[in-house]
Write a sequence for this structure.
C-alpha cells in the first residue's frame, strides 16, 4: 500500500506556485545569449520526446490528491492526446528556429565586440 505525500493547503500551493514562477522570471532576466540557446535546446529536445509519448513527463495537469480523479484525468488525457501531438511538433520546430536565431545573435555579439575593439585600437593609435 503506497502512501500519498502530505496534502498541502490551497494557500500553500498557491504561494509555492507563485514563488516558482517568480524565480524563473528572475533567472531568465539574468541569462546571456548562450544560456538562452541552451535552454531552448533543452526545450526542443523535451518537445521532440513529448511528441512520441501519450503522457508527457511532468504533466502537472494530471495530478490530483484523489486517486479516482487522477485516473479520470489520465483517461480523458489519453482520449484527447492525439489532438495535441501536432502542437508538440510545432513547438519543437519553432524552438529550433529560435535556437538558430540565438546562434546568429551570439555571432553578432562576437562581431560587435571585435569591431568595438578595432575602433578602440584605432582611436588609441590616432592619439
Amino acid at each position: 500500500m503506497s502512501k500519498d505525500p502530505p496534502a498541502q493547503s490551497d494557500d500553500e500551493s498557491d504561494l509555492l506556485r507563485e514563488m516558482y514562477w517568480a524565480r524563473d522570471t528572475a533567472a531568465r532576466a539574468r541569462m546571456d545569449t548562450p544560456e538562452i540557446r541552451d535552454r531552448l535546446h533543452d526545450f526542443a529536445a523535451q518537445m521532440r520526446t513529448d511528441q512520441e509519448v501519450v503522457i508527457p513527463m511532468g504533466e502537472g495537469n494530471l495530478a490530483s490528491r484523489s486517486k479516482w480523479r487522477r485516473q479520470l484525468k489520465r483517461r480523458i488525457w489519453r482520449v484527447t492526446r492525439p489532438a495535441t501531438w501536432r502542437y508538440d511538433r510545432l513547438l519543437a520546430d519553432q524552438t529550433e528556429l529560435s535556437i538558430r536565431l540565438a546562434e546568429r545573435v551570439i555571432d553578432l555579439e562576437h562581431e560587435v565586440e571585435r569591431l568595438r575593439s578595432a575602433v578602440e585600437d584605432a582611436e588609441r593609435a590616432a592619439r
Q: What stands out?
A: The two ends are 81 Å apart (CA to CA). Residues 33-126 form one domain.
